Amino acid sequence: MIRVEHVSKAFHGKTVLHDVNLYVTDGEFLGIIGSNGSGKTTLLRIMSGEERPDEGNVSLRGRLLERWKVRERAQQLTVVSQEGLTPVPFSVYDVVMMGRHVYQGRFQPPSARDREVVEHVLAVTGLEGMSPQSVAQLSGGERQRVAIARALAQEPRVLLLDEPTTYLDIGYQLSVLEYVKKWQVAHGAAVVAVLHDLNLAAQFCERIVLMEGGHIAAEGAPSDVLQADILQRVYRTRPTIVRHPLSGVPQVLLGS
């Protein structure tokens, strides 16, 4: 699906990523974790094409990312940044409909299919009742939900999320990741999410990549990566690892 090969990147002479190799398959939910400054967001931006690597390359479905036409790539891949949406003076419905623009001709009105997709996305993301509201009147967390809904309406094969739960309270953190997970399973799409919450990463991701100093420090199933000795080395803290009583996935308890 999407392959990162020997990617390195520096800003102002400081290396942010060094010789990173990563492959994401169809139908996979991959989490990228790591401390601040470890290169998580830069890696995601390079995977999306927003940044170009200094060395190495990124390919999507076997074709180098830069060789895709903009519209074609947008139909395959989309990204939601941690900033979400600015408070634009458009309705929630209109903003989510913007996700369908990659399938429409210039000045072409929305098709029945476009309206069907948007109405379905609004329903499954719990935004149906907010459809006529102006995005400018919404809170930061609500705008983040609209940004994710717009991305889902785009029906990409790869969804890249940069800290999607940053502005959300606990309930919405769970609900957002739950409907992204359901959408991913239903469509067989790939999701790559940068996450700070290790417990959410363990709960929703089949595979986790742990970044440290621009390198991949560990990679594998949550139970392989979320181990006390690995986390102590990377995060400089002494965690206790327990099993979630319902799902059985590892959960991280932080000590002093």
From TrEMBL:
The keyword Isomerase does not apply. SMART domains: AAA. One of its GO terms (molecular function) is ATP binding. Residues 2-238 form the ABC transporter domain. Gene3D superfamilies: P-loop containing nucleotide triphosphate hydrolases (3.40.50.300). It holds the Pfam family ABC_tran. Keywords: ATP-binding, Nucleotide-binding, Translocase, Transport. This is Heme ABC transporter ATP-binding protein. It comes from Novibacillus thermophilus.
